[in-house]
């Protein structure tokens, strides 16, 4: 397995057409469930370590950010971007995630890698 050692710089720009999960809607009632807007943020992990977290964007299912994160990585295997709904009560609700293998980035043949990863809904 290929590992990455070096400086990682990630810029998070946007998430598109996020859908609330059934768990996110557990407190919603009536027609409001059809137009439920999320209060979203993205958690950034390298392997199992938290590297950063975006600010929360309120009442939108297509949030935009301009957040950059830089970290030193030793023996890194994967980057995980997880989208959460900032719940007003209890733990935050998982919405979606994306895993990018460092191997895929390294095989792109460039020091710069840009991608629009598809998400997996929870």
TrEMBL record:
It comes from the Eukaryota. Residues 1-117 form the C2 domain. CDD domains: C2_PKC_epsilon. Coiled coil: none annotated. SMART domains: C2. PANTHER family: CONSERVED SERINE PROLINE-RICH PROTEIN (AFU_ORTHOLOGUE AFUA_2G01790) (PTHR47052), INGRESSION PROTEIN 1 (PTHR47052:SF3). This is C2 domain-containing protein. It comes from Poecilia latipinna.
């Amino acid at each position: 397995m290929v590992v990455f050692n070096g400086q990682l710089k990630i810029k998070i720009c946007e998430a598109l057409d996020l859908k609330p999960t059934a768990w996110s809607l557990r407190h919603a009632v009536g027609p409001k469930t059809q137009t439920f807007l999320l209060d979203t943020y993205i958690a950034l992990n390298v392997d199992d370590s938290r590297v950063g977290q975006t600010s929360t964007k309120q009442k939108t299912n297509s949030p935009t950010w301009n957040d950059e994160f830089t970290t030193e990585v030793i023996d890194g295997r994967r980057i995980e971007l997880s989208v959460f709904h900032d719940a007003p009560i209890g733990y935050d609700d998982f919405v979606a995630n994306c895993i990018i293998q460092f191997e895929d980035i390294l095989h792109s043949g460039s020091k710069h890698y840009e991608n629009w990863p598809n998400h997996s809904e929870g």
